[in-house]
Structure formats: C-alpha cells, structure tokens
Amino acid sequence: MSTPWRIAVVGGGIAGLAAAVRLADRAPAGTRITVYEQSGALGGKLRTGELAGGPVEFGAEAFLMRDPAGGESAVVALIRRLGLADRIVHPTVGQAALAVDGALRPIPGGTLVGVPGDLEQVATVARPVEDGDRDGGRPLLGADDDVSVGALVRARLGDEVVDRLVDPMLGGVYAGRADDLSLVTTMPALARAARVEHTLVGAVRAAQAAAPRAPGQPVFGTLAGGLGTLVDAAVAASGATVRRDAAVRELTPAGGGWRLTVGPTRDPQHVEADAVVLAVPARPAARLLTDLAPDAATGIGGLDYASVALVTLALPEPPLPELSGFLVPGTEGLLIKASTFFTVKWGHLRRPDGLALVRASVGRYGEEAQLQRPDEDLAAVVHRELSAVLGVPLPAPVAGHVQRWGGSLPQYTPGHRDRVAAARAALRAAHPTVALAGAAYEGVGIPVCVRSGETAAEEIITALGGSGT
C-alpha cells in the first residue's frame, strides 16, 4: 500500500494550481497537498473583478484553444477535467488593428506574431526592404543558435517591419522589445523552421504549415463568468489546503524531505514536506535555492521582468469600431501599448444599456517610471489617448479601475531556454524532489503555465516513486 505524501506547492497562480490538480489526480490516496500563496488572492494573473455592475478581467482575458502541434491546449484539457467545458466562449469579433500614423489600420493577415509570410499583405502598414530576404544558400539559424526576434527580422526585412508590426505584437504579449526577446523562447515554431529554411518568409510559411488550423476553428477562448471560475474549480478539484498571506521564506533539507519556513520573521512557522513545487517568479525561486542549488539559482535568478498597468473604463455608448481592439507601436509616442474593446470582442459581455468596457495596457519594459503616476492620472491619459486614436471624443467614464501588475511579465533574452535547461538539470541532480513551474521558464500564456505546473507535478511523482493510481 502506498504511503501518502506531503507536498508543498509554493505559489497559488494557475501554474501552482494546475500542479496541485495533477498531484491530486496521480498521487497516492491520502496525499496532503498544501498551497502557500504570499498574497491574499489565488490565481496569479487570472483575476476576475466587477466594474459598473458587470464582470471584467483585471488580468489575463483569454487563452489559446490549440497547442503548437494542433491538439487542444493544456488549459482546455484542464477545463474539461474540471467540468467547465460548457462555459468556453469565443470572440465574436476577431479583427484587431494597429495604430499607425495616427490612424487605425487592420493587422495584416499571413503573419506570425507580426513576422510576414506574405510581403504584399503587410504593405499597408510597413514597407519591407527590397531584396533583403534573399536565399543565402544556408539556413537562417544554426542548430544551437538563438537570436533576438528583432535582430533576425531587421536583418531580413528592415526596421519598419519590426517597429510597426513585430514590436507591437510582441509588446502586447510580453511588454518587451523585439530587439531583446529570444526567438527560440517567444517564437519556437519560427525558430525551428529557421534552422531549415533559407529565407524568413519561407520560415514563416513553414511554421504556419506545421500547425495548420481548420477554417473557422477558433483561436482564442475564455470562460463565461470569468477566468476566476477556473481558479475556484482548480482549488476545489485539488482538495488542497490553501494558505493565503503565507510567504515561504526559507527551504531547508529535513529528514529526507524539506522544512519550509513560512510567515513573518517575528513569528515564523516551520512545516515539513516530502516534496516542493516552486511555482513563483524566478527571483523568489532563486532566493529559496541559493544555498541548496547555487547553479540552478544563478541560472534563473537573472531573469528580468516588465511591469504593466491595466486601465479599464466603463463608457456610456461610446462610438467604438467593430474591432476587438488595437496595438500601438512604440514609435507612435503613446503611453498606451494595446487596447481591448471587451464588449465588442466578447459577445457574452455586451450589455443592453449600451455601456461599453474598454481596457488599455500601459507600460513597456524599461518604462517603469511612466507607471508611477497616480491611478487618476493614468486613467485620464488612457481616456485622452483612446479618443485621439479613435478620432472622436469619448464620453466620460461612469466607472474605472486600474490594476497594476508590478514585475509581472518575464523578459526572455536570447539563450533563455538553454539557461533554464541547465538550471533544471542542476536542480534535478541535487534535489529531485524540488521542481520549478511558471511563466519564468517556458513562456507566458495560460496554456504554457498550466503545462508547466503539470510537468512539475509529474517530476515530483517520479521522484517520489510513481503514482498511487
């Protein structure tokens, strides 16, 4: 008969909760799972709130339906496991725009995160350099190479394609700069194709062909009732004991397992566990590992993060275009980097009173000083810039909300994947019953974080001797 385990999950974001669900499903009966969350709220960047009497997302708003191989994504599988599949809804308006030269222009088709697979289609917003993407007789990328996305695209197609297309697309996801972000980590399908193809356009087309999408197949989904329902369902399914406002400050070996020091310095509590999932950002994880696995700590501790603020306004019957939203290149000189027209994009959020919810994302990597403004100032700037981009004065908001996510978006510089692989190998060799999970490692996005948590759980199960199921 299998002996029940004691497993600590440090971090109550979606990666940690996905790990807890997988552990509950696969660990021996009677296993005790405890989730330690240093804040008062679970879910990490999944946070559903209320504005003007209706639900709204103050964090992530959607997830990818498919994985890179074309199957259902890890979060869709988790949603099915949790019995929430009937709540999945899709955008009713999918067309987005770019704010270029003071006007909104549809985002061109045929691109991969802004990198063109058809140069003619992008001509409406950017002019690729002539004859820049020539076949040089060898693959664009060596077998073990990694470069920044911006460096590759600038060299092949010129500055304008990066500044007007690729940078705002990547900035909308990572709040970072194309010239700093790793191709291998942020665009792995393109990186794989670039190791074979001799032109960038050819690599984009090969990457797109490797993950075909059936006509009419939705790309994105969310949950009616908000993504907070996913958080609640995961907690319930895991059966875990949840401790909020419980920062884990130390992790030390103890009797073949681990001792966690939890809570404030003046009144610490010591708890023991057989294994630990660290589902926290890279720097807190590195601090916990500094003495235990210094090579692993060094490998992950240098990861930097961008901060953003999400400003949501409730506007009475504004003249919004039939778009899901728009992205803003940094060259436009606006504080806003992206905006979503929630009640246009998501049909289930449309209101009979005509009130519209519009959210803007503010903050690019390296521009943290811009986020020091008070909430009222940020909201006023967003309202003014939205009016300018749309070319019409917007009505005064009846309600607003500013959600600040400090140090929330990892910045994956070239070589990130190799550094993470080396850090994980060092940690596994030294302490196989400690596993890493979260956006710091494989990438951002709900499906990636779910998969990361589930993978960490499987590593723990293997290290402790297999499942009890």
Which labels suit this protein?
single chain; FAD/NAD(P)-binding domain; 469 residues; flavoprotein; five-stranded parallel sheet; alpha+beta; protoporphyrinogen ix oxidase, domain 3; EC 1.3.3.15; Polyamine Oxidase, Chain A, domain 2; 32% helix; 14 helices; 3 domains; seven-stranded mixed sheet
Unreliable sequence segments: none
Could you say what the CATH architecture of the largest domain is? Answer: 3-Layer(bba) Sandwich
Number of DSSP E strands: 22
Which strand order do you get reading across the main beta sheet? 8-7-18-19-20-17-21
What fold name stands as the CATH topology of the largest domain?
Answer: FAD/NAD(P)-binding domain
Strand content: 15-25%
Estimated helix fraction: 25-40%
Give the CATH H-level superfamily of the largest domain.
FAD/NAD(P)-binding domain
- Taken together, the total number of domains comes to 3
Based on helices, strands and strand pairing, what is the structural class? alpha+beta
Reported for the largest beta sheet, the result is: 7 strands, mixed
Return Rg in Å: 23 Å
Spatial gap, N to C terminus = 11 Å
Name of the level-1 CATH class of the largest domain = Alpha Beta
- Silhouette: globular
Mean pLDDT: 94
Subcellular location: Cytoplasm
Protein name: Coproporphyrinogen III oxidase
Family: Belongs to the protoporphyrinogen/coproporphyrinogen oxidase family. Coproporphyrinogen III oxidase subfamily.
Catalytic activity: coproporphyrinogen III + 3 O2 = coproporphyrin III + 3 H2O2
